[in-house]
Amino acid sequence: RGAVVLTAYFLLTNVDVPIARHHLTGPDSGTYALASIFAKVCLWGPQFLAVVAFPRMHRAPTRSTGLGVAGLTLLFGVCVSAALVPLGAPVVEAVAGRAVPEAAQLAPYFGLLGTAWAVVNVAVLHDIATRPRGRGGWVWLVATGLVLALVVQATPTTVSTIVMWALGVSIVGACVALARLAVDGRGSARRNTVGPIAVEPLAQAHEQL
Q: Using CA atoms, how far apart are residues 138 and 124, in angstroms rounded to an integer?
């Protein structure tokens, strides 16, 4: 079931680009694809934090673990997004080989979009670590909401409108993720009792014998 949750997460973090390419004209489509690189930087940059914490989430899950990783992830993304305000133009020119003013102006917003996705990723891995049977319906709801928002968005369709709709839905998803980490962290230690559940019946059977 973890694969099902990760499929929903993959849809959430990748569906905006093909929809943008469908709605936008050639130059605007290229601008969106270029600016989306900054979203991926803020998404994949702090991934190691959740990966390193994953074994601890499984063995000894606590609210502080999940929220701590989410907080560091959020801090990383906000710092990178803030740095893109003055550095967006030179970075875009270095990557594209030419100046793309709109991509540079929207770079911080794409950074925040990737940050929201990264926070959702922490909650996804936390669910996989603490729920052996998985429960990722909320990720599907966020991903479906993003698809609907981008498909049925207000016109005219521009690079900025698409990223703003994507950012709005993804921020809602990040808030849901933080709420789940705050609530689930208190009870995950009790739920993640695979060892005691398996050992106790064996011990009782041994005593009866």
A: 10
